[in-house]
Amino acid sequence: MTLLSVPPRTDRSTAGPAPLAPAARLLPALAAVYRAQLARARVARIPLLFVATFQSIGILVMMRGVVDGGQTSEARSVVAGSSVLVVAFVALNLLAQYFGKLRATGGLDHYATLPVPAASVVLGTAAAYASFTLPGTVVTAVVGAVMFGLPLGQLWVLLAVVPLAGAALSGLGAACGLLAPRQEIATMLGQLGMSAALLLGVLPTGHLPQPVLWLRDLLPSTYGVEAFARTFAPSPDWGMVLVDLGVCAGVGVVSLALATWAYRRAVSR
Would you say the C-alpha torsion 193, 199, 202, 207 has a positive or negative sign? Predict the structure, then answer.
C-alpha cells in the first residue's frame, strides 16, 4: 500500500506578515499626482486664469498713470512685477488655501494612504497649480510691454521665470497651508504673501525706503521679477539674469523641501 505524502502544516501563528508592495518611485508618482490635480482643477481653469490675469492687467493700467513708459527702469519693474504677480496669486495664495483646506477637512488622509512619496504629493500639486500661470503671465507681459513701450523680443525668458519662481512660491504656499493650525490662518498667510509680492514686486524700487528693500530681497519672487525686468534693457546683462534665476532655483529647492517636511508632519499627527 502506498502512503500519500501529506505536506507539513504551516503554523500561521508563527508566519510573518505578507510583504507589502514596494512603494511607487518618485517620478512616476509625481506624474500621477500631477495629472490627477490637473484634471481636478480643469473645471476652474478659466475663472482662475481670468481672475489672476485681470488683476495684474488692472495693476498695469493703474501704474501707467504714475509711471512713464519707454526704456525706464520703473516701467520694466512694473511690467515684470505684474507678470510674476500672476504666479504669486496662484502658486502662493491659492495653494496655501488648498492645503489649508485639505488639512482642516481631513483630505490629507487620502494622500497618506497612498503608497507614494511625500515629495511627489507636494511637487505634483505645486506643479499642477503653477501650470495654470503661464498663459496669464504671457498675456500680462504682452499687454504691459505694449502699454509701456517695451520690447517683446525676450519674452521667451518667461519659460524659465515662471517655473522657477512658481517652484519657490509654491513651496512657501504649501508650507503655509500645511503648517497653519487653522484653515482661516492658512488663507490669511496666503493673502499676506500675495500682498507682499504685489507691493514689493510691482512698485519701483527707486522710492522705497531701505528697510523695505531688505524685505524685498527676502521675497523669492523678487529674483524672478529682476531676471525678467533685465531682459527689457536694450543690452540685457544675461549673466545677472542667470544669477537671479539661480537664486530662484535654489530658494525653490529649499521651499519645496520645507513643504515636504510640513506634509509629513501634517499626515503623522
Answer: negative
Least confident of 56-65, 86-95, 198-207, 211-220: 198-207
Angle made by CA atoms 143, 145, 149, in degrees to the nearest 5:
125
pLDDT greater at residue 245 or residue 135: 245
For residues 52 and 162, the answer to whether their CB atoms sit within 8 Å is no
Cβ 130 vs Cβ 248: under 8 Å = no
Higher-pLDDT residue of 240 and 136 is 240
What CA–CA distance (Å, rounded) separates 228 from 220? 14
- Please tell me the pTM assigned to this model: 0.82
Q: Return the number of other C-beta atoms located less than 10 Å from residue 31's C-beta.
A: 13
Q: How many Å apart are CA 239 and CA 218, to the nearest integer?
A: 21
Q: Torsion over CA of 122, 125, 128 and 130, rounded to 10 degrees?
A: -60
Q: What angle separates helix 73-87 from helix 133-148, to the nearest 10 degrees?
A: 160
The burial of 138, by beta-carbon neighbours within 10 Å (0-12 exposed, 13-18 middle, 19 or more buried), is given as middle
Which value, in Å, is the radius of gyration of the alpha carbons in the chain? 24
For residue range 171-227, list pLDDT tens digits in order.
899 899 999 988 899 989 988 988 888 888 888 777 778 888 888 888 888 999 999
As a 3-state breakdown, the chain gives helix, strand, coil percent values, each rounded to 5, of: 75, 0, 25
Q: Is the dihedral of CA 100, 91, 57, 207 positive or negative?
A: positive
